[in-house]
Design goal:
The complex is a heterodimer of chains A (80) and B (233).
Chain A (H helix, E strand, L loop, with lengths): L1 E8 L6 H12 L12 E6 L5 H16 L5 E7 L2
Antiparallel strand pairs in A: 1-2, 1-3
Chain B lengths: L2 E5 L6 H12 L4 E4 L11 E4 L19 H11 L3 E5 L1 H8 L6 E3 L7 E9 L15 E8 L3 E3 L2 H9 L3 E6 L18 E5 L5 E4 L17 H14 L1
Parallel strand pairs in B: 1-2, 1-3, 3-4, 4-11
Antiparallel strand pairs in B: 5-8, 6-7, 6-9, 9-10, 10-11
Helix pairs in contact in B: 1-5
The chains are: A alpha+beta (80), B alpha/beta (233).
């Protein structure tokens, strides 16, 4: 089973890397960029086929390690 | 003072730290590998040194914070044992939940390696009793992610409880925007936990302890710890 955990910064947390990327996009002349926030994507292969179990395991992984919930939110998706 | 210095893959300041501890206490520090599940008997102080544990993968300090030895450090701290984390060590203590908040990328994105001034906010703690309250000391920093952040409520609480022990300041002690080198909230350079026995700080006091280093302002921190433990014993 393939799954994806997406980790993003919470609203209001300063993101200097996102700001730098935003500036670079503007200087490249990419139109219409209002703001950029940088995050992380984890593509995870799971053994087993129980979707509910997989979601629970991914949530556990995100809470324990993949995200720092002081500053980050995460989203878990089982892609099948 | 019996010190245990934790060693994780990618840590590189453990020998500087051990040297400073030996100088202050007269005792050799014990190096403790991250895979250990206990601390040496009679440990008075655990030090989490600086460096780049696990290459700063995922988030700085995140993987080291989950290593086996950190369970022993949590238990040690819960019993009131003294824990000092410097630089990557501060990041590891935040990631392990021993200290609140997080160290983010420096506001101006650059890795910064030079001396800074710190204002010692109070002198009545084990980690500052070698200084006077309001004293300005000069110590080096070397980090890319030292921008301390926490939510408003946490910041309010740590300020109200007097848990900020060191703040970035100018040479004459002014805490202002230009001296806040990495953009940290409230110019925070070092904080303690609620109980006051766990300190995390970004600057490196261990690198200003001998005349050959050009400055000995870091000595006070270690001398203070030794004095605190002697008094307790």
């Amino acid at each position: 089973m393939k799954a994806r955990v997406t980790v993003t910064l919470k609203t209001g947390i300063l993101d200097p890397q996102g700001k730098a990327i935003e500036g670079a996009l503007k200087s490249l002349g990419v139109d219409g960029v209002a703001s950029v926030r940088q995050g992380k994507v984890f593509d995870i292969e799971l053994s087993g086929s129980d979707t509910a179990k997989a979601e629970a395991a991914l949530k556990d992984a995100a809470d324990k390690l993949l995200a720092n919930t002081v500053i980050e939110n995460y989203r878990v998706e089982v892609l099948g | 003072m019996k010190s245990a210095v934790l060693v994780f893959p990618g840590i590189n300041r453990e020998r500087d730290m051990a040297r400073a501890l030996k100088l202050a206490s007269g005792h050799e520090a014990q190096m403790v590998w991250h895979a250990e599940t206990s601390l040496p008997d009679g440990t008075d102080l655990v030090v989490v040194p600086g460096g780049f544990s696990y290459g700063d993968y995922l988030r700085c300090g995140a993987i080291a914070a989950r290593s086996p030895v950190m369970d022993a450090v949590r238990a040690f701290a819960a019993q009131g044992g003294l824990v000092l984390g410097v630089c990557n060590g501060f990041q590891i203590l935040c990631e392990s939940g021993l200290l609140p908040g997080v160290l983010m990328r420096n506001a101006r994105l650059k890795f910064i390696c030079h001396d800074v001034h710190l204002r010692v906010e109070r002198s009545d703690t084990p980690f500052t009793r070698g200084y006077n309250a309001g004293q300005v000391i000069r110590v080096p920093i070397a980090h890319g992610e030292g921008n301390y952040e926490a939510d408003e409520e946490t910041l309010k609480r740590i300020e109200a409880e007097g848990r900020v022990l060191y703040r970035y300041c100018s040479a004459d002690g002014a805490v202002d925007e230009p001296s806040n080198i990495n953009g940290a909230a409230h110019s925070i350079a070092g904080i303690v936990n609620e109980r006051g026995n766990v300190l995390g700080m970004m600057p490196h006091p261990e690198n200003h302890v001998e005349d050959i280093m050009g400055c000995t302002d870091g000595r006070g921190l270690f001398a203070g710890l030794v004095a605190h433990l002697e008094k307790a014993a």
